[in-house]
Amino acid sequence: MYRITPCTALLLVSALALGLTGLMSASTFAADEQASRSCIKCHKRNGKLEGVHASPGLAILCQDCHGPKGTHPKKGSTLNTFGPDSPLTAEQRTEICLTCHDHQALGEVEWTHNVHANRLGCDQCHKLHPETDPMLSLNTQQHSQLCVGCHKVKQ
């Protein structure tokens, strides 16, 4: 029998939310999809485009999260970037994620989403383009240890 874990539920809720919020006209989608293909040519070759956020089945386009290509890959690029070197604030990065992911549903699956939403970017715990997000495979003890990494336990 298959057991639905909180992480699996989160993925299911996210996929459903993407399906309901990602509606757009076919011609707009086709043009945007072509722009995403130009991103994929380099990034897939460089090994930096895997995982659920790169799944063609979900119809997530690069520009949905990263914004328009602009001058990328040249200097002065205005792409939205994620991770520790991002010029965006945690709140800005989280806001990008919340265009598809439902804040309330995330909080119901994992209470820490509500606690951290205004302080941490989603990318500080979740990895967006590896084959699998390591956060989704943590057991309870590993999850607690991750928390201790930021929240020092007083003895």
TrEMBL record:
GO molecular function: metal ion binding
Domain Cytochrome c-type protein NrfB-like, first and last residues per copy: 62-150
Extent of the signal sequence: 1-30
Coiled-coil regions, chain positions: none
Record-linked InterPro entries: Cytochrom_c_NrfB-like_dom (IPR053875), Multihaem_cyt_sf (IPR036280), Multiheme_Cytochr_ET (IPR051829), NapC/NirT_cytc_sf (IPR038266)
Species the sequence originates in: Shewanella insulae
One Pfam family from the record: Cytochrom_c_NrfB-like
The protein's name: Nitrite reductase
Keywords: Electron transport, Heme, Iron, Metal-binding, Signal, Transport
